[in-house]
Amino acid sequence: MTMKYTLGANELSAKTHNLWKSILAEFIGIFILNFFSCAACTQAAFKTGIDTYANDLTLIALAFGLSVFMAAMTIGHISGCHINPAVTVGLLAAGKVSVLRAVFYIVAQCAGAAAGVASLNALVSGVAGAGPRGLGHTSLSMGVSEFQGLGFEFFLGFVLVLVVFGVTDENKPDSRFIAPLAIGLTVTLGHLGTVSYTGSSMNPARTFGTALITGNWEHHWIYWAGPILGGVAAALLYVLAFAAPEIDSHAPEKYRQVQTDDKEMRRLNA
C-alpha cells in the first residue's frame, strides 16, 4: 500500500487530488512563461554591426521573473506551479510529490513550453529579429566550456529550488504570502547574473521548447543535467538541514511564533 501511494497510482482515480487539472495548469503555466518571456527576447535583440547582436539583459530578466510571478499567482493553488522539471524532480527527491505526478508534470511542462514557442514563432514569422536567434533559445556563449555551463546551470537550479522550499515550508506559513514574488525575483536574479554565459535557462522544459522549434540541440544535455542536479542538491539540503521546526498545532495562535523561536534557540544551543 505504501508503494502504491509513493508511485502515485491512487492519483489516477482519486478526485481529491485533481491530477488532471494540475497537469493542465502546468501546461498553461509554462506555455505563458515561454510565450511571453521568449517574446521579450525577440524584442531585446538588436543589431550592433554586421551579423553582430546584443541583448537588453534587464528586459529579458524582468520578463522571465514576471512571467513566473504571474504563473505562481494564477495556478499555484492548483498544481503548485512547478512549471520546471528541476523543481518537480527536487520535490520528488524530497518525497513531496509522487513518481506518477512528477512524470505527468514534466511531460506537460515540455509540451507547454514547445507549444508556447511554436505559437510565438508563428506570430513573429517574418518580423525583423525573429527566428532561431530571436526566439530566446539558450546556448553557451563563446569561450564558455561545457563544464562551466554545467556549473552555471547547477547553481541556477540550486538557488531556485532552495528558495522554493524555503518559501513553501509548511512550518513557515507567513512565507507563503510572498512566495510568488520571491520565486519570481529569484528567476530575475538568475538571469541578471548568468544570462550572458548560458542564457540562464534554470528550466529544462523552457530550453526544450526553444530547442524543439529551432532545431538547435547543441549542448542540450547541460540544460537538463545542471538545473536538475542543482535542484535535487538544494531539496536534500533544505529537508535535511534547513527545514523549519515543526509548530505545535495545539498551541494558541499568538504563542506559535514564540514557540518556534524557542525551539530554534534550543536547537542552536544544542
TrEMBL record:
Gene3D superfamilies recorded: Glycerol uptake facilitator protein
Domain of life the protein comes from: Eukaryota
GO CC, one annotated term: plasma membrane
Compartments it resides in: Cell membrane
GO molecular function: channel activity
Entry-linked InterPro entries: Aquaporin-like (IPR023271), Aquaporin_transptr (IPR034294), MIP (IPR000425), MIP_CS (IPR022357)
UniProt topology in membrane: Multi-pass membrane protein
Keywords: Cell membrane, Membrane, Transmembrane, Transmembrane helix, Transport
Regions that span the bilayer: 23-46, 58-81, 102-127, 147-165, 177-197, 221-244
PANTHER family per UniProt: AQUAPORIN TRANSPORTER (PTHR19139), MIP17260P (PTHR19139:SF199)
Family: Belongs to the MIP/aquaporin (TC 1.A.8) family.
Protein name, as recorded: Aquaporin
Organism: Belgica antarctica
Phylogenetic classification of the source organism: Eukaryota, Metazoa, Ecdysozoa, Arthropoda, Hexapoda
